[in-house]
What we know:
This protein is of the alpha+beta class. The protein has helices spanning 9-36, 41-49, 68-81, 83-103, 106-117, 236-251; strands at 122-126, 142-146, 149-160, 167-178, 184-192, 198-202, 214-225, 229-230. The site of flavin-adenine dinucleotide has 15 residues, from helix 4, strand 1 and strand 3.
Amino acid sequence: MALDFDLTEEHQMLRKMVRNFAEKEIAPVAQELDDKEEFSYHLTKRMGELGLFGPFVSEEYGGSNMGYLSYIIAVEEIARIDGSQAATLAAGNSLGISPIYYYGNEEQKRQWLPDLCAGKALASFGLTEPNAGSDAGASRTTAVLEGDYWVINGSKIFITNSTTEISKVCVVQAVTGKREDGRNELSCILVPNGTPGFITKTMHGKMVWRASNTGELYFQDCKVPKENLLGRRGDGFHQMLATLDGGRLSIA
Ligand SMILES: Cc1cc2nc3c(=O)[nH]c(=O)nc-3n(C[C@H](O)[C@H](O)[C@H](O)COP(=O)(O)OP(=O)(O)OC[C@H]3O[C@@H](n4cnc5c(N)ncnc54)[C@H](O)[C@@H]3O)c2cc1C
């Protein structure tokens, strides 16, 4: 059977709609936002209103359930006009929404996804550290289970969508123990912005994507309930690699 690579009528309509939005609403302000290194709350909200956050998320969690191809078409059309807004959208979806959607429990999904899919909130993905970039398993940030809380210490760098006024939660990869083979056990933990001991600092001076938000994050005895673990303890490395695989679809 021959594969059909043609876009459906729905995909073509979506492309037209997003192209129209990007040309009419993003193009006139893109240069100024870039010059000022200014994150746009308005355009983020508009992308949410158009259903571009959570296109692969089912409707019961506030997504538009249009599928991955629709998501890629949307990012492609926005990147055609402005890389910064495309980065906000791509990271918001692949790095912010998808780990919660694919690995979160029912309560976590109901707590975070509706506002994330509406473009009213952003989630970030805290993997990279000053000494752990390409080698994503080299994280040094630790999370120690003390009673009913994870106590997190360490730092992250270059984290997209992490320091805006609508940045509500970060999925943080941390070392939570040692595995039987002697390697670090890595787990992902949801850390809401504003938690005491979670300090954020906006980074400036990027050469590209200057209007997308990038932050440095510091965790100093930051305590979150043990229920904030995402998925199973020790699954963090697998979750992160799978999330990055999804991210490559839109970043490419
Ligand atoms: C704008 C922006 C947004 C980002 N957003 C996020 C985010 O939301 N969340 C997040 O966790 N991270 C984010 N990152 C971080 C990004 O994932 C890292 O920059 C990336 O993983 C590379 O890590 P590094 O910068 O430490 O470079 P390094 O790992 O130090 O690499 C530097 C260079 O050395 C090369 N290199 C590294 N190791 C080897 C090797 N073993 N052999 C040969 N060559 C090698 C690399 O290819 C690269 O060219 C972002 C980065 C940027 C710039």
